[in-house]
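job 3f2a | input accepted
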Amino acid sequence: MITRIVMLNFQPDKVDEFLEIFNQNKQVLAKSDGCIRLEIFKSTNDTDTYVTISNWQSEEHLEMYRQSELFKDIWSKVKPLFNNKAEAWTLNTVN
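job 3f2a | predicted structure (95 res):
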């Protein structure tokens, strides 16, 4: 299993638009092949910054999602709303 963390910082007047896009797509995104869990968090220090954390069965499953039409559609709508470039990390659990 891998964990994907993505930090997103939005233009202040675009946050509601992002949340609408996320909420419209979260159910189908969470049902993507290999997606185990999807959560979204809001920064306590910066009201324009959100973090998504998702768990995937494997890096291959994440990559299949990232190449999907679903991802391309969502990303094309969300990317113009950014205030800063998104930051992403893919992590393995350390036992």
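job 3f2a | The chain has three helices and four strands.
job 3f2a | closed
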